[in-house]
């Protein structure tokens, strides 16, 4: 049971805590209650007071004995007997229920309005009758004097179904395009309906004429409210003969006196969400209004907030148990919430023990837990960056620190350290694992990188330490503890790739060296034992043994290297075959290329010739170049060869060179002809 306090009004959440699954046996449930403290301390007021997925509507019968709720999935209705504190029956339906009404004092007569236009009647034994209305319905009300059901929905008409005659009567024609809610006054039976245009139409069932029209959309707009569109009516409730409360789709609640067209008071929820439910509490003159996020209780005369509740899940409906301080909600969650507020009234007679529990809790103020507040010190505020809030209404001074809203604390903590919860979770998991390992044999922790190498070094260090202890020498520093080699066991880039070719070829050598080292250590231990026993042996014996062992090791190493090479060749062969198969499966499509202007097309034979030349040796290429005249090889005085190459010229360069040659020849011929003419003229003058 959770206890919260707002404006010094204590609210006890009776449905808080973990719920046990239905498929558990009674024996397992008792075992869990013994182990888990939270399950043992929880209060299960009504057994299995929940729906499979979501609960949409909840109501109490007039005699107060039965609580009925509808929900999904699958669509169903559940009836709970408060005298037995358990479920009485459950009935599944064909489609989801929009709303329902209990016509009798108990559960014997129920009417369901379903989402597929069907109206279903249930009696005490179960399903009784089913009929259909012309348009989709959204709400309905029962007129007790005439036994008429008034249906409103996606139509301008209000359909009337008489339950005494068992037939539809003439419908009421309204000015609205659609209607959302309706209600009938319990005193003078005035019928009121809320439209999608934000108006409330009042009708007299006796004359079937409209007697009043209220424009609530204009009245809901005040200086403080911000409205994006035209508000429609989403909730409607009468209180006595003269008062009526109207809820809008933009989150305002308007309280009217039927003798005036102006509202007495306008209350805004400041969330912009449609009002889902309106209830009246007559002992303290309170109005309980709820949207999908919050339940607010406020004084209907002054509009002053009394208290409020914000459940964990979205709210679909609110039901106030008559003449008590108990409140029930249907939410977007399997579990239906039950709240007990002692200020509103006493507990119902079927759970009168709640008064004793709350009195005991109030007598012991130390047991009160502030679930909605967090105690923080000045240092905590500085770490969160909230020290500027000291002195504001968001922090309440208490002893050596402050109380702040738990939601604000979580937001600030997430901003300061977004991965705090993950770190806390990992640390807790690590602690649990270490606790379970406490009784086991403690092993040395290996690094995450190169574990096998580290294990090998640890084994070798242990062997060397034993030798050094016997010889009374100083221990050498470990590679694992040396800072110079620390990166090799931390950075994954230094991980030894055991599948690489180099490792597979060197691995036999490494394994043989390690075996050789172990054998040497054994030989040294044997020598020390022999010295202690003072037994003399020839000096060459050990060396001969070592040489024979080393030759055997070399032979074994060569064989292993050969095996590895064979394996590598086989793997390469398999890879080549796979590539060849992939090449055969791929279909080559022709590619077309465009030749640039000023360039001539060359045949593909040139590229083939180039490929053939590239395959030939350097000597063959030099001979071919020498035949073509692009290469000149000459001997130098020193005795070495000297080769000069001529670059191949493109066709454009050849054309330019030919043009230049023709131009030079033309100039030469012109010069010769000019000199010839000059010589003739000179000779003629001499003869004259």
From TrEMBL:
Keywords, ordered alphabetically: Coiled coil, Nucleus, Repeat, WD repeat
Q: Which residues form the signal peptide?
A: none
Entry's Pfam families?
Beta-prop_NOL10_N, NOL10_2nd, NUC153
Q: Which GO terms describe its cellular component?
A: 90S preribosome; small-subunit processome
**Locations of Basic and acidic residues compositional bias?**
648-663
Q: Where is the composition biased (Acidic residues)?
A: 528-538
Q: What is its main location?
A: nucleus
Q: Ranges for the NUC153 domain?
A: 482-508
Cite the record's Basic residues compositional bias ranges.
664-688
Q: Which GO terms describe its biological process?
A: maturation of SSU-rRNA from tricistronic rRNA transcript (SSU-rRNA, 5.8S rRNA, LSU-rRNA)
Q: Which domain of life is it from?
A: Eukaryota
Q: Where is the Nucleolar protein 10-like N-terminal domain?
A: 1-364
Q: Which parts of this chain are annotated as the region Disordered?
A: 528-558, 644-688
All copies of domain Nucleolar protein 10-like second, residue ranges: 369-417
Q: Where in the cell is it found?
A: Nucleus, Nucleolus
Hey, which family's this protein in? Belongs to the WD repeat NOL10/ENP2 family.
Q: What is this protein called?
A: Nucleolar protein 10
- Native source species: Circaetus pectoralis
Phylogenetic classification of the source organism: Eukaryota, Metazoa, Chordata, Craniata, Vertebrata
């Amino acid at each position: 049971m959770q206890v919260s306090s707002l404006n010094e009004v204590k609210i006890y959440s009776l449905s808080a805590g973990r719920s046990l699954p239905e498929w558990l046996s009674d024996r397992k449930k008792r075992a869990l209650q013994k182990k888990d403290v939270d399950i043992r301390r929880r209060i299960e007021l009504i057994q299995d007071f929940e729906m499979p997925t979501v609960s949409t509507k909840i109501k109490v019968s007039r005699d107060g004995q039965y609580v009925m709720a509808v929900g999904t999935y699958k669509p169903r209705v559940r009836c709970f007997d408060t005298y037995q504190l358990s479920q009485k029956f459950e009935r599944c339906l064909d489609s989801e229920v929009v709303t329902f009404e209990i016509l009798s004092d108990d559960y014997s007569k129920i009417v369901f309005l379903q989402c597929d236009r069907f109206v279903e009647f249930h009696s005490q034994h179960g399903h009784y009758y089913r009929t259909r209305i012309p348009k989709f319905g959204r709400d309905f009300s029962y007129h007790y004097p005439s036994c008429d059901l008034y249906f409103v929905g996606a139509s301008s008409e209000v359909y009337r179904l008489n339950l005494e005659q068992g037939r539809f009567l003439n419908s009421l024609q309204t000015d609205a395009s659609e209607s959302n809610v309706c209600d009938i006054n319990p005193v003078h039976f005035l019928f009121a309906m809320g439209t999608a245009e934000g108006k409330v139409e009042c009708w007299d069932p006796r004359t079937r004429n409209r007697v009043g029209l209220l424009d609530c959309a204009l009245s809901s707009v005040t200086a403080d409210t911000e409205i994006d569109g035209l508000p429609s009516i989403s909730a409607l409730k009468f209180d006595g003969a003269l008062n009526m409360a109207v809820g809008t789709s933009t989150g305002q609640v308007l309280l009217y006196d039927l003798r005036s067209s102006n509202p007495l008071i306008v209350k805004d929820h400041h969330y912009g969400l449609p009002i889902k439910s309106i209830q009246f509490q007559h002992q303290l003159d309170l109005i309980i209004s709820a949207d999908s996020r919050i339940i607010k209780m406020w004084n209907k005369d002054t509009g002053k907030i009394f208290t409020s509740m914000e459940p964990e899940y979205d709210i679909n409906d609110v039901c106030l148990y008559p003449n008590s301080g108990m409140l029930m909600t249907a939410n977007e969650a399997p579990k239906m919430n039950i709240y007990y507020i002692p200020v509103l009234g006493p507990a119902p007679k079927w759970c009168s023990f709640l008064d004793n529990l709350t009195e005991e809790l109030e007598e012991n103020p130390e047991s009160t837990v502030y679930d909605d507040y967090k105690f923080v010190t000045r240092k905590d505020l500085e770490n969160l960056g909230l020290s500027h809030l000291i002195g504001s209404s968001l922090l309440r001074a208490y002893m050596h620190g402050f109380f702040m809203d738990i939601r604000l604390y979580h937001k600030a903590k997430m901003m300061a350290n977004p991965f705090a919860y993950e770190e806390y979770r990992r640390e807790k998991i690590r602690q649990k694992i270490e606790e379970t390992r406490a009784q086991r044999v403690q092993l040395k922790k290996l690094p995450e990188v190169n574990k096998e190498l580290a294990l090998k070094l640890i084994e070798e260090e242990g062997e060397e330490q034993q030798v050094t202890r016997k010889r009374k020498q100083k221990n050498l520093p470990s590679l694992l503890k040396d800072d110079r080699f620390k990166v090799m066991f931390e950075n994954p880039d230094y991980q030894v790739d055991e599948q690489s070719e180099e490792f597979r070829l060197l691995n036999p050598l490494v394994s043989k060296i390690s075996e050789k080292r172990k054998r040497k250590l054994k030989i040294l231990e044997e020598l020390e034992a022999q010295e202690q026993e003072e037994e003399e042996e020839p000096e060459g014996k050990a060396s001969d043994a070592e040489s024979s062992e080393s030759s055997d090791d070399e032979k074994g190493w060569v064989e292993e290297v050969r095996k590895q090479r064979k394996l590598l060749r086989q793997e390469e062969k398999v890879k080549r075959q796979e590539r060849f198969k992939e090449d055969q499966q791929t279909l080559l499509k022709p590619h077309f290329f465009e030749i640039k202007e000023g360039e001539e097309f060359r045949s593909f034979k040139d590229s083939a010739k180039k490929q053939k030349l590239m395959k030939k040796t350097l000597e063959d290429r030099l001979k071919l170049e020498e035949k073509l005249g692009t290469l000149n090889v000459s001997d130098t005085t020193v005795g070495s060869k000297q080769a000069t190459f001529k670059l191949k010229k493109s066709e454009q360069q050849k054309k330019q060179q030919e043009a230049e040659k023709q131009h030079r020849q033309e100039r030469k011929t012109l010069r010769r002809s000019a000199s010839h003419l000059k010589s003739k003229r000179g000779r003629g003058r001499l003869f004259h």
